[in-house]
## 1
Amino acid sequence: MGNKRCIIHLPFHIDFEHPSGSQIRPVRIIDAFKNIGYKAEVITGYGDERKKRIREIEKSIDDGIKYDFLYSESSTQPTLLTEKNHFPKYPFLDFGFLKFCKQRNIKIGLFYRDIYWRFPIYDQSVKTPKRQIAKSFYNYDLYKYNQLLDVIYLPTKLMYEYIPFNFKGIVDELPPGINSCEIEKKNIEKNTNEVNTNNLKIFYVGGISSIYNIKLLFEVVNELSNVELTVCCRKEEWEKEKEVYESFINSRIKIIHKFGKDLEPYFRECDICSLLFEPIEYRNFAMPVKLFEYMTYLKPIISTKGTAAGEFVEKNDIGWNVEYDKEKLKDIMNLILNNRSTLLGKIYNIEKTLNYNTWEARALKVKSDLTSL
């Protein structure tokens, strides 16, 4: 076990003490490779930090150290623009290192995080000069990936049709995972998942604007007297967006601004969690990290048909995948209220799928894929 080595290449800065947003995934995947027995040589940080680590690893390779594979993840920014000032100070560093590894027959897999920049919503949120520059660098990333990668991983394979290239290697999916140490909590959580006769309690954690608009959920809960909703979002986002939602607020709808362990009581108290979003084109392949967090707490999920998340929920029978329609959503909620034992069946299915969806399971897949080439 101690002789297994891999390289993890993350061409951006990570705050390991307080990772947030897109930083959580790479932190989890580093831990997962270590948990399956690998000595992981990690390249991350701003350019000067990465340069130092790359030179050290290149020397170790030339000195005869063997690495089973290299696993990389893209940034939300183009690779060459991940410095603090977004200036391409190290234009040849990262792709030069991938080329170095390829020439030494080290197989390379990369998780391509997002294709947000290909959608109109990106054009609307980024000013023209900056947008044009960024897109040219995003396209350069794809050009280099096609030259250097053996496997490109996506949140779901459905995303591939939106990427403007014909990849020469293997295309596969590597969705988010579940923190295995969190699964140990499931017996505690299970004790709180007793079927009761109170109101149906729904919990949502995440954004509430743009592609995260949850107005329909507010409308439905407002009209159903035996349904409660708790929404956790950033305080500044609520202040900005509350006009969209305020007309639906009543005593059964609560807005909170919590994070981390402070969320646990809300997960314990709720019956189901929500991923109910409008099925816009971007949702065809977006796979929310929250889906897997909800599963960790053994909470059935209500999702929207026509989304990748909804497809996952339906395939694994871990919740309800419903049309984005007010009356149909009401029908589902009334169905649950009238037959609350259905919650236990969904919880049982979540328990069955947990171990197949840990970060360690994702790491084992990468290892299997890249060492078999």
## 2
Amino acid sequence: MEGQLALTMFIVVCGILLLGFPVALTLGGTALGFAALGILIGHFDPDYLTALTGRIFGTMSNETLVAVPLFILMGVVLERAKIAEDLLANMAGLFGERPGGLGVAVIIVGALLAASTGIVGATVVTMGVLALPSMLRAGYQPQLATGTICATGTLGQIIPPSIALVLLGDIMSSAYQQAQLRMNIINTDTVSVGDLFVGAMVPGVVLVVLYLVYVLLRAALQPDTAPPAVVEKTDARAAVMAVLPPLGLIVLVLGSILAGAATPTEAAGVGATGALFLARARGALSLDVLRDISRSTLYTTSMVFLILIGAAVFALVFRGFGGDTLIEAFFEELGGGPDMALLVVMLVMFLLGFILDFIEITFVVVPVVGPVLLSMGFDPIWLGVMIAVNLQTSFLTPPFGFALFYLRGVAPDSVSTRAIYAGVLPFVLIQLLLLVLMWWWPNLVLWLPGLLGR
């Protein structure tokens, strides 16, 4: 009976989320409602709820999660400092006169923004406003132009420092400890957000290269879809001066993490401070702008932490109903071993990405299946990066892909919604190709962590 209640609770949560209710209130409210029902019919131990205050306090006092508001602050400051405008103008001047050159410029700028802001919405909207009109005027096929911009905007999900990796890293750390306790390992090892950052770097670079190869191949095989553009040429010195500020910030943040000189939280503090200095040097940090930055950071941070609290309540009640045991039994009866279990989980996550966003999947699905998969022997860093790349597709898969919504909001009326949806399809396939490559060749993820002794 308890297992049926756990499964029903999971289905009800997904159904309510589809109706558009807030994630945090849906997770917490549904869980508490089912807990009350379970207590009334004698199938839920109310003692489980005594751990709730400790879990919430643990979430709010988690030092790792302090990186979330700091990375959000860094991204918002860089967005307001209009770094992207200078980058795009200079990269377009360097590459725009070549076939597919504007697409190459968009991907390179998007990768730099991903490594310095990690905010998908800001990147997609900025590129949609600045680059899309230029690409359309140059004669780019609308599908290719919109697909390139949407896909490039999602690079912030996988290229560190990524807020998604911070949230996923915290959940994977908890799941890894639970998995080791299930295997009767008392002195448990840990996996940190920094480990996921390091593991995601090579796949992130590979994904950028795959995007570039696709755009250049389209330009070579179908020249009319990505013709050369008439742009104001940029000299190398101007391009270097535009790239140096964000690149310096990237080196400062990621370099300190890779060198082991700082934790992701400490590096986030350095990055936020550096972004403020950068904005001040550009004269883009007035009192009104600073107030706007603070309000935007506070709003986003509050949303994330409220979801974290709701997820903690959901996970506690789900475990109280024996949901984790139910999932484990399902995988044991499935047959095919660990690989089949992982294939099913990845397929379910990909399909859920059509109707839910990455935060909802991260906090609903990963805490449920993570401990079970890790207890089967999968490497936590590899599994975490695999999940991150899978969840990246949720920004591009219709009908609820957020990157599609962001671009639709700023794209001209001449670009149809159908064109945007069709344009992202090849890039979704490229992301799935990367997923297959990482599965077939785990060292794509594990080589750099091994090199750095992670």
## 3
Amino acid sequence: MYISNIMTLHSIIRIPSYNLYGEMGDLPDVVHCEAIATRSVLHDWHIKPHRHSRLHQFFLVESGGGQYHIDGQNGTLDPPQILNIPARSVHGFTFIAGTQGWVVTVPLEILDQNIQSSLRQQINTPHISRPDSTLIGLFDEIAREHAERRFARAHILQSLTALVAGRVIRMIAEQGEGEDSKSGSPLVRRFENLLEQHFCDHWTIGDYANALAVSTTHLTRVTKQDTGLPASKVIEGRLIQEARRDLAYTSLTISEIAYRIGYSDPAYFTRVFTRVTGVTPTAFRTGLEGPRSRA
């Protein structure tokens, strides 16, 4: 079932953005996995509509159920069901008390490593359908691996998550669904395309606005309407995303990463990274590795 994005821009502005629901700190792991009940029971099984700017989520609802709200559409959860929730999709739930299942949360920089550009149309589509036994088994494996701190943990978690993403992409494609090419602001899409080309050049908002032939005020307003973040935060976030990717996937030093993404002063880069994520680059990398894993 395709869930179309019909939320108005006016209402999206008021939707809170979290890393994990109810938390504003940075995601503390390469992949996060928790039982649906873990967070839901703290909120009386009611998760208010919210979104995640840099996180993609996969829900597996195995028993119980309830009601969902995803990008302006409401419906009933009828387990077993798998839910694909792309970053920036507004979602909320009222679960039946005792609902069982898993939530797997993946930072975009981790997901991007495993998704070919030709498949992004599907993975960026909010989607609900019935999982097969293989997909259910993958969630169980992720839950077990996440709970332990064994050697190669990060590598295995990323690989299992890539398999979940692949299975979800296949389901979406086989049901003939894909992201609506008309959704979102065309200006923001153009801005994001330019950002991919120039984020390491540290273009200012004015540089992007001039290239897009709009005012900085208009670019900031439209970007915030579409993403929930002002243009300045989107620019900064793309730099931090690249830094997180290098910290997770390369052996570059902190200074080398800073220089690679355009910072002339590694100490200033460290201050920016710490302000945005809540942890230093060194602590972020250590957290990915875990106390006994060096994956």
## 4
Amino acid sequence: MLYSKKQERSRRFRLALRMGIPILLLMSILIFYVIRQKNFAFTSLEIALFATIAFIAVYFIFFLINLGQNETYVDRLTDAFNRDALLKTLKKGDFKTLVLLRIDNLPYINDHHGIDRGDKLLKTLVLFLDQHLQSYGIKEPVVGRYHGGDFIVALHLREEESVAVFEEFSANHKEINGISIEIKYAAVSIEKKTDPSDVITHLYDTISLQKGEKPTQKRANEERLDITLLEKEIVEAIEKRAIYLLFFPIKNLLNDTVDFFEVAVRLDTETNGLLMPKKFIPVVNRLGLERAFDEALFTTLCKVAKEVRNDIRFTFRLSPISMRYEGFCEKLAQIATYHHLTASRFDFQIYENRPYKDITRYKVIIEEIKVFGFTVSLENFGAVNASVEYLKKLPVDMVQFDKEFTVGFSNPRQNALLKGYLQTCRTLGVKALMRWVDNEELLQAFKQIGIDYAQGFAVSNRSLTSEILISRYGVKS
């Protein structure tokens, strides 16, 4: 039996005793007193009264037990601890390591196999996980369902030992109930005074950065950041607009000039220095700061853009969260106007982690963006999350091809597919950008088949700072 279910059964038994014994004692005293007074001489009314009292007492006991069950320790779907019970257990326990285990393809499973089968899979997973942990001598493992297909496991093992345990579990459970599953996990040591919620937050940030690598592949010299301090510094950097920009040249293959730049962003923090997006974007998303960050980014970019020639354009990622917020793009247009810049100089890269289902709504959003004069690019075109279905229905101005088309250019099938996409783009009046173009031979080949823009070492082997960009492409006095 799962440790969580044992705890729940014990809790219910204690609850029944605490509720029932006082009532039974009270009834016993009342009956004893009446019997002594009456000498067993009862009227039918008094008997009915006793029966009513007994019924009310029994009903009250069961009512309280049922009420207590609503405040259960157990997640009703999986029999693991629920979130509230898990956090209470973590605060009371003396654990060495917390592990976040995620069924990464749960949305796909629910969509293609049905929610019922997805639910059964989660329950079976918890049972298998409990058995696996007990096989390592962990008698009462604490397993809690935190959200969706995410589970938190608390162990008395060191972090390295915990990773080994979960690596084996992941390797041995590629399929459950006839359904293929994709398991991700992250482990972190926990100290006695650390708030478990902060550690779980760190685990979520860690697992969101994983791109197929195992947790054991961490760089040896990578320092663990102070979670609370990092979060605080990210918020302060956004508020102060401590944004550091880098510009990657993009070559216009039609006229062999560089008139387009992709913008990369770093956050400048006091203690942790310049933070890469993989460090701060998960925190920004979790805290709901997407709009504040995008506004700070765009304001900083406008200050640079007004110092360079009017024919220089910029492309950068805009959070899907910001883009869907009513009035946000109008706000960006106002910022551009304030700096005496035309919106057409800015290209928003749209991206999604998974295919966007409500494509009609997405179309409306893009049309609203274009009303203000901004252009829109479809990033990673040709990948699963940016398929030709987008190109058919969305009024984008440019597609930025996924790197697989560059890497696989010598593959005849990839080449044929790329040329077919390009023909569609030309018909629709959509520009095409190819990334990762790292040699002159590829650059000329892409130019020959009709690619409009190229980016990579063949164009430039380094990014430009704001100062260098302004010095090279600044407005001539």
